[in-house]
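[Meeting: bench + compute handoff]

Bench side (C.D.) handed over the final construct sequence. Compute side (W.E.) agreed to return the predicted structure before the next meeting so the bench team could plan truncations. Sequence as handed over:
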Amino acid sequence: MVSPLQRQRMKLLAQPSKAAAAITAANTDSLHLQLIEFEQDKLTLKGMVQIAEKVNHKRDVLIPKYKPMAETYLEAGESYQNPIFTDLIVWLFDTGELGTAIEWLFKAIELDLPTPENFKRSSWAVVCADFVLQWAETQMANGQSVEPYFSQVFEKIDQEWKLPEQLEAKWYKFAGYGLLLNEKGEPQPSQLGNIERLEKAKALLITAHDKHNKIGVKTKIDQIDMRIRAIQEGKL
């Protein structure tokens, strides 16, 4: 049975002629040696029981160790598959380093690289949407800003990416609710006096409903309509 490491080495050695001309045998061997150590470090990580312990080990040990290798890969401008680079993207999300994680993920999409082997999420777009939305929900619950990362990813979702309908609906709902927040961080249309803002929030929530009609935004849309009528009638 061929191991993941052996399979990766075969992929590296079987690159198309253009890539093969740019990747010397010495570089391939060097990456192969790095991958051997990388697989050993992943086994150590897998043996840890607690999630917090794994996250700390990624942040304090593994990312500092392997990030320079991933940066060297990016600087070389090649598109061959590099498990160190793709695994680090996920680890950077795990440790909350969203700036680099999102930048590298966009690069992985550009290079048409696959997500890590045995990874549950099927595409980089889904990886990014899941991680950033979870992060944004935590930020909002703690009264902290979701920018610039939320808008950076939402632009991709709104204009480029195709995601499962329910996941897209969650993003539009979150964006809509974000325009309706009161001083306590709760979506409350009755506290807003800006019709343009209310209409923008409504449009986002309608899109969320259209994407997934069980997303639970109809009541909030009705509240927005009531608030807009009240403003228009001078009942502030």
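W.E. noted at the follow-up: Residues 16-26 have pLDDT under 50 and may be disordered. C.D. will use this when planning the next construct.
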